[in-house]
């Protein structure tokens, strides 16, 4: 007797109100209640369940042979229940990669964890191990779990060593060294150097030039973050030459992207921006959206450093929008950090403070610790400028949730701002101690880090407050010349103001006017309103000494307009204290 067609028992079950027909393109049903499904499933013998899962998986593979990415997670589930570890590993890896390409990193991590559990009991190829641990580590990095990523790569290294597989062990060293070399919660520059030198020796021993190019990138990063820009330049250019020779396009993009900071620090900002432009084209070619977001933020960083504020804000916005779309909190924090600096330079305090308050939790989540510190530094600077230096001091003296090594490049910047706040608060002894400490904390003299400019600014503010203007002339002119030659314009107008003010205090009015007019020209180009208020105020004072009252009034009127703009773009609670700051009060009382 022939078996009844499948639709007959399905119709009977539907009539019994146990299942219901779904509105789908293909015939599909669901159980009316989960308990019914669980009861039916548990009533099957274990072998029968395995057989049914295997049949389902094989049927899906056959029906959707050209759509396996779409069904990878379901196939992994069926093969896992069928007890087929080989197929389970294949499809969990595939499902994880599919989720990672959609930037669903928590989902990807769940699949990779399942694959890892299978790999611990099922012999698998070196290629599968490398794919699993590399992809799993990347997902952990993308959600800010850098310490877990370190453990992931170390586990791969241990497995490779146990197998006696030197190529696999070298492959495990590379992302581990990258993590140690870059600013995140797991950063350890000594370990980065140690692992990179080991990896370089291994790569050259087996003539693996692709790995060598990756190591040179890592070495460049480590040298840059330890304040050795010349060494970083040597490693970076070696890596770029090797990547070009081997046509390693994506590795070339990583090298170009990060050597941009090195070029800027070595007085070649135009080369840095050109490197970023080339890297962006390659990241677009590979559809590498996380690195495209990083490139946009890095380009915004470079443009803000050379004073192209409008373009910098536009690219920072693009970077944030892309990073938000793909769930990349690292680049959201990075792009926000750049915007913060520009907003303050323009005197847009509310925008700076609002963004600073939002960026810290994002930066903590991603492990981008420099952005945590930078957001507080900018907040504290804004508080000081708006007439509340004690609030800024309190913020910078509160505990930071970051290890010191992770913020080496900005430590001197932070301490110099603390010195500036002490000057504003008329605590000159504390300011003097902070300036001395900032000099000790300087990691090299790379202008792209802002620390050299900020330490000089704070020291000059202190010297002027102590009535020692002649000493300002010993520290500012050479730095100004170097910054202009390098093309670094951020904070340049502020330095010109301090130089001009020192000359004014020494009654060298002609020289002071000449220097202040240079600062004014730069400040107007950048729309650096806080610097312009000070510059115009001192120019007005010079006009007074010459009895040029009409000119003095015109200069003060222009300065007042900038002050009114800043007041209008500051939180209401700070407007009174801002009007009571010394330079603004002098404008209003004259």
Properties at a glance:
disordered N terminus, 590 residues, 1% strand, elongated, 30 helices, Serine Threonine Protein Phosphatase 5, Tetratricopeptide repeat, mainly alpha
Give a short synopsis of this structure.
With about 600 residues, this protein is mainly α.
Question: What can you tell me about this protein's structure?
Answer:
This protein has 590 residues and is mainly α. Among the domains are: 1-43, no CATH class; 48-124; 143-286, Tetratricopeptide repeat domain (Serine Threonine Protein Phosphatase 5, Tetratricopeptide repeat); 480-590, Serine Threonine Protein Phosphatase 5, Tetratricopeptide repeat (Alpha Horseshoe). The chain is built from 30 helices and 2 strands. It has a two-stranded antiparallel ribbon. A hairpin with a 7-residue loop joins strand 1 and strand 2. The radius of gyration is 31 Å and the shape is elongated. The termini are far apart. The model is unreliable at 1-6 (pLDDT under 50).
